[in-house]
Amino acid sequence: MIRVAVLGYGTVGSGVVEIIEKNKKEVSERSSDEVGVKYILDLREFPGDPYEDKVVHDFDIIVNDPEVDIVVETLGGVDTAYKYTKEALLHSKSVCTSNKAVVAEKGPELLKIAKEHNCSYLFEASVGGGIPIIRPLNTSFTAERIEEITGILNGTTNYMLTKMDEEGVSYDDVLKEAQAKGYAERNPEADVCGYDTCRKIAILTSLYMGKTVHYQDIRTEGITNISKADFDYAKKLSCSIKLLGTSREVDGKCMALVAPFMVSNLSPLYAIRGVFNAVMVKGNMVGDTLFYGQGAGKLATASAVVADIVDCAINKGKNIGCKWEDEDVLLIDDSNKYFEYFVRVKREAEDEISKALNVKERIESDADKSEVGLILDTMSEERFFEIKEKFNDSILNYIRFAKN
Amino acid sequence: MIRVAVLGYGTVGSGVVEIIEKNKKEVSERSSDEVGVKYILDLREFPGDPYEDKVVHDFDIIVNDPEVDIVVETLGGVDTAYKYTKEALLHSKSVCTSNKAVVAEKGPELLKIAKEHNCSYLFEASVGGGIPIIRPLNTSFTAERIEEITGILNGTTNYMLTKMDEEGVSYDDVLKEAQAKGYAERNPEADVCGYDTCRKIAILTSLYMGKTVHYQDIRTEGITNISKADFDYAKKLSCSIKLLGTSREVDGKCMALVAPFMVSNLSPLYAIRGVFNAVMVKGNMVGDTLFYGQGAGKLATASAVVADIVDCAINKGKNIGCKWEDEDVLLIDDSNKYFEYFVRVKREAEDEISKALNVKERIESDADKSEVGLILDTMSEERFFEIKEKFNDSILNYIRFAKN
Known about the structure:
Two copies of one chain form a homodimer. With 404 residues, the first copy, chain A, is α/β, with parallel strands linked by helices. The first copy, chain A, is 36% helix and 27% strand. Chain A contains 14 helices and 16 strands. Chain A has helices spanning 11-22, 24-31, 59-63, 79-90, 100-116, 134-139, 155-167, 171-180, 189-192, 195-209, 228-236, 298-314, 350-356, 381-390, and strands at residues 2-7, 35-41, 55-56, 68-73, 94-97, 121-122, 146-152, 219-220, 239-250, 253-264, 276-283, 287-294, 338-346, 359-364, 371-380, 395-401. The model of chain A has no long low-confidence stretch (mean pLDDT 96). The interface between A and B is large, with 52 and 52 residues.
C-alpha cells in the first residue's frame, strides 16, 4: 500500500483525490501496489465531503507519520509550500507538485535534498497541465541536444487571444468575459502580464540546459497592449498573435523571452486555440516535435500529478534523477538577440522612422488612416529598443515575429 | 561502459551509430556511463567507413560476448530479426528496435522473455519515428484510462495526401514523385495500402489495452482509391483527407480501423502536413492530447532508438516493465461500429440511393456533372457495407468522417 498525503484541498488537490479514486484500478496496476489517500491537509473543514475524515490541519501529523510515502503539494504560493516540501523531502517522503512558483524559485535546492534522502521531487503538472512534457524531456529526449523550446504555456491568455482573433472582441471585453467564466483571476496579472508563462519557460529551460535559469532574469512582456488593431494587421499577414515563452541554447548560453508574437499560419502553434497549451521542442537530431493538450483544468492537471505519484510509487526508496543543477545559466544580452519586428506607427512619423530603419513591408490599416504597419528587417533587441526609445511617441505597438 | 551492438547498418542503424557519436556527451550523461558501439552486424563490408573495424558478419560473436549489454535491432523483416532478438534477450541482453513488424507480431512473447531474463525489450522508434509516444503511454498516462488513440502514423501517405490536397496532383503522379524522392518504396504497398499504419495502431492499442490486438484482425483500407475528385468535395466540406489509424475502448473490447478519413479543419490532425506524423491520445481524465513530429527519417527514428538505449543503460540488469500481455483483445464487430459516411454516387442512381438511406447533405460536383456527393447519417459499418454491396456499381467511392 502506497499512502499519499495531499496538501491543499483546492481545485488540483481535490482532482488528485478524485483520480486516485476513479482510476484506482489503472493507478494501482501501474504502481504495482494499491495507492490510497491517507491525509488531506487544509485549514478548512469539509463537512459532508466523502474524504472529510482524512482532513487534518497540522502538517506535523503527516511528516511524522512513517506510513506516508508521498506528499502532494497543491497549496500554491511559495513560502509555506516550500517549507512543507523541504520538510517532507528531509523525511524521505517524495513530493509531487503542480506549484510552478516553488519549482521555478527553489527547484534545484529541492531536487538536491530529494537526491540526498533517496526520494524524489517531481513536478510534471507545473508546466503544460496535463500535457506530458517534463517526463519526456527527462526520459525521451535523452539522445538529443535540445536547441529550442517554444510554447503556448498559459491557457487563460490563449483563450483571450483566440477570442480576440476569431471574434474581434476587445482586450477589455475579453478579459471581463474570461473573469466571468473563471478562466482569469480577479487580479489577472500573473496571466496577462506573462509571469506564469515566464516561470514555466524558466523551468523547461533549466531542465534542458541542466542548470538554473532564474525567471526574474527573463524579459517578460504580457498581452495587455494587444488590441483589435494588432489582430487586423496580423490577419493581413496570415498570422495570429500568441503569447509565447521561448528559449534557445546559444553557444552554451541561453536566449529566453516571454512576449506576444506574430505566429504564421504555417506554424503548428498557429492552430492552438482556446485554453489549450502546446510546447514545441526542437532537438538537434529529432527536429521539431510538438506536445499539445489541456494546459490547465482540475482533472488534466491532477492527472499529471497522479502520474508523478505512480512514478514515485514504482521508485519507492529511490531517487528519480533530474539533470538540473544549482549553477546559473548565462543569458545572452540584447545585442545578441535578433528578431524581425512588426510595428504600428503614426502615419505622420512614418517617413522619419522609415529613414532610420530598414522597412521590409508596409501594411495599410483599413480601420485607422492615422497609422500604418511596418515590418522591419531583422535586428538586435538592443538596436530595436534604441529606436523605440527615440520614436517612443510615434510607435503605437510592436510585436516580434516567431521564427517558425 | 555500456557496449552496444547494432544489427543492420542501413538507414536507421547507421543513424544510431551517428547519434551515439555526435551526441556522446548528452547520451553518456543521461546514461550515467559512457555508451559506445562495439559491433555492427551486416552482411556487407563497409570499406572506408569510420566504423569499418566494428563490422562483423556473425551474430554469434555478439550474443556470446558478455561485454555486450544492449543489442539494437534495425534489420527489418520478421524472421531473422525475431530470431536474433529472442537469442539476445535469452542471453540477458536488452534489445532496442525500430522494427514495427516484429513488435506487432511477436511483442508480448519478446516482452515476456525480457522480463524473465532481467533485461528489456524497447521499441519507441517503431511508432511515430522520433515522436515520443510509447514511453509517454507507458510512463506519463499512468493515471489515465485511455479511451482512444487516433493518429497519422505514416509519413509517406501523409506526404502524398498533402500534395493532392494542396496542389491538386493526381494519385498516380504524386506516387511517382514520392518514389522519385525516396519517400515511397518501388513497391509502395506497405504504405499506400495502410499495412504500416495497421501495425502501428495495433502496437499502440495493445499498449493501452494491456492485451494483444492482432494487426491481421484490423480492417485496413489504404489510399489507393483516393482521387482528386474526393479532395474537391473535401474542400467544400472544410475537410482534408487523411489516412488514420484509430482505435477505441468499448466496454473492455476494442474498435480498431485503418482507413482514409474526412478530417475537419477544426481537428488538430487537419494541420499535420507532409511527412509529419501526429498521434492523438484521449484519456478519461486528461482529455485530448497530441504528439507531433517527424514520423520517419534516419536521425529522428534513430534518436528514439538511442533514447531506448539510454533507458536500458540506466536500468542495466533490470526489466523495464510494459503492460502488454499475450491475452487477446476482443474486437467489436461491424454491427457495433458507427460512422458518418461521405459517398460519391452516380447521379443516375442518386434517387434510388437516397430512398434507401438518410442523406444529411448533398454536394454538387463542379468538375463532373455525372456524379454527386452525399453525406449519410451515422450508421453501422454492417449496414453501410450492405448498402454498398447493393449499390456497388453506383457508389464511386466512400470516406468516413473522423469524429473530431
